[in-house]
Amino acid sequence: MAIIDGKLISLQIQDEIALEVNAIKEKGGKVPHLAAVIVGNDGASETYVGAKVKACDKIGFKSTLVKLEENTTEQELLHIVEGLNKDADIDGYIVQLPLPKHINEQKIVEAIDPKKDVDGFHPQNVGRMALNLPAYLPATPYGIMQLLERYKIDTAGKNCVVIGRSHIVGSPMSILMARNTVPGNCTVTMCHSRTKNLKEFTLNADIVIVALGKPEFVTADMLKDGVVVIDVGITRVPSDQTKSGFKLLGDVKYDEVAAKASYITPVPGGVGPMTIASLLMNTLKASKKEIYL
Asked: Exactly one of 14, 96, 117, 158 is catalytic; which is it?
């Protein structure tokens, strides 16, 4: 069994980008500029956005953080988005989700200029991804593809089961794994809350990607020996064994599944760190006009 170290790969990618940014600076080129918009005071969102800003500083990107109050109206947020679309110095930006309930998330996502949509959520980027055209890929699926590629995990012709069908992870992941690319070329089954006899599908899987948000949902009896397991879930649960009073669990019962797996991502330290690396990769592409000329 090999542990897929997302933290290590994320740092490698950041080092690679930093070298490229230094080369851009030496030639007098434009430094990549990433902006993030956060509405309200969601603790997890603030931590995540803070990590993005810190990563930008480390690799030499410019970064802008736009913090808005919880009671910001949808119209006010759309005005901010319009301004970011028009700002020539900003190469890419994200509007951190989730948004307060009074704001229509899809309306905001569709207002973002696809050329600056480094989160990869705009319908134009999703459509381009499905057609195997150059696109900004959603950060978490893009990160998973990087892990599979850099660990040289063979995916061609393999049976891949994706558990979960969210627009952020499950659905794009199923598209990417089926595309005629490397990694890719899998026979993909997407399972979800209405799937009957889930175990029949997972027992036949060579690769299982779980993105449910249900701690320790996947157990060893659901998987065959030698399976590749990518655990996207991360849930904070109470614990009397830690100083903080809680611990983080994935969607996979790690200890028992690891004994069966050929490769497995831990939680934390697996998929999580890759989302920021992917966002930085997308921003570099945006600054170089690689996707949209």
From this structure: 96
Q: Give the pLDDT confidence of 157-205 residue by residue, as tens digits.
A: 999 999 999 999 999 999 999 999 999 999 999 999 999 999 999 999 9
Phi and psi dihedrals of 198, rounded to 5?
A: -50, -40
CB 2 within 8 A of CB 31: no
Please give the Cα distance from 191 to 214 (Å, whole number): 14
**CATH class held by domain 139-272:** alpha beta
Residue 252 reports pLDDT greater than 90: yes
- 28-113 and 139-272, same CATH topology: yes
Name the nearest CA neighbour of 17 among 272, 292, 287.
287
CB 189 within 8 A of CB 159: yes
DSSP notation for 145-173: HHHHHHTT---TT-EEEEE---TTTHHHH
What's the whole-model pTM score?
0.95
d(CA 293, CA 286): 10
Q: In what order do the strands lie in the sheet with 62-68?
A: 62-68, 33-39, 92-95
Which residue among the candidates 5, 117, 119, 251 is catalytic per the annotation? Answer: 119
Question: Distance between CA atoms of 60 and 47, rounded to whole angstroms?
Answer: 20
- Whether 96 is catalytic: yes
CATH value of 28-113 in 3.20.20.60, 3.40.50.10860, 3.40.50.1970, 3.40.1000.10: 3.40.50.10860
Q: Which of 52, 115, 116, 285 is catalytic?
A: 52
27 is catalytic: no
146: annotated active-site residue: no
Give dist(CA 20, CA 117) in Å, integer: 21
